[in-house]
Amino acid sequence: METHKTHTVEEAKRKLMSFCAYRERCHKEVEKKLREMRMIPEAQYQIIHLLLQEDFLNEERFARSFARGKFRIKKWGKIRIVRELKVREISKYNIESALREIEEPLYLKALDEVARKKVALIHDKNILKIKRKLADHLLYKGFESHLVYEKVRELIK
After folding, report:
1. Cα angle at 39 between 95 and 18, to 5 degrees?
2. By C-alpha distance, which of 33, 110, 3 is closest to 67?
3. How large is the average pLDDT for residues 71-87?
4. Is the pTM of this model over 0.85?
5. Torsion angle of alpha carbons 114, 115, 119, 124, nearest 10°?
6. How far apart, in whole angstroms, are the C-alpha atoms of residue 143 and residue 38?
7. pLDDT tens digits for 1-32?
8. Are the C-beta atoms of 28 and 62 separated by less than 8 Å?
């Protein structure tokens, strides 16, 4: 039989403070962690309230950091970032705030880099297949369709 460690509110608070201090977290991640720790709803509410008060938990800061990171490191497009933030139940206001972190010239440069890198990896003779593979990849990365098709037309003639 499996035994589950129970935590006092104080232990849970300390654990969640370091959990949030390690990197930005959203409410959903914190709630999940508290459920995994088998904290009762009243304790969960109390801990989340404390984390918000002490600024360990800040949804806008999380959204901005998430958008910057996924764009800079994984070269995700805005659509993919928005989709992932919605999965994490981030508010429309905070999603809009997060997207402002991405500067348009850098965004277009990233699209170009991702597209050129992908084209170099496609070993196909059929122009239509090359175009489709490139477009599919850019759409998967989350770039807007009008930008994707414009880039495909620019790179493959």
Report:
1. 60
2. 110
3. 97
4. yes
5. 120
6. 40
7. 444 567 788 888 999 999 999 999 999 999 99
8. no
